[in-house]
Amino acid sequence: YDDCDFVLSHPELFSSREAVSSTNAYRNSPEAMAILKRSKAQPRARTLIMADPPEHGRYRTVLQRALSPGRTIRELTPRMVAIIDELIDGFCERGACEFVREFAYPLPMRVVAAILDVPDSDIDTLKAWSDDFISVQAGNIPPDRAVSSARHTLEFEEFILAKLQDRRDHPKPDFMGRLVEEIPGEAPLSSPELVNICL
Hints:
With 199 residues, the protein is mostly helical.
């Protein structure tokens, strides 16, 4: 505990800025980097797991507000229960299931999709974007996959930027809408910061 507490309390010695970027597969692919330079979410932001205090606290405040148990989670609970019921109903009468494929994979993806306002018809696309993001961070993909992942990153960014703009133009009390709400006494997050938080 003392060692962990020391590490977490001394970001000047144990920075999070390179937490997931040192193994990033994009670093070994000039073609992927060229694709990413076309991003509309520039300059790229380091948020949450790649940010040190005090910036980390600012991002966490916005995210906690957007995901507050008293609002967002309570509002999402009936949707989550409906998803769980639907998934179980899909295999209940058979008396058995392939648990990962039929429950453990679709449940979190559908909940994340609900949070990000992704229609059920686009869940496979969201999963592909997510898989690419994780693979790139782990650095265990060949250069051609890094290139396709870079393209998918831009697709995800475009999707999120459109959602954020929609919530600015037409405020809505959901997760995406709360991300763009102004917090008294806090500078609003930029679009690149918001995209990175959603990523």
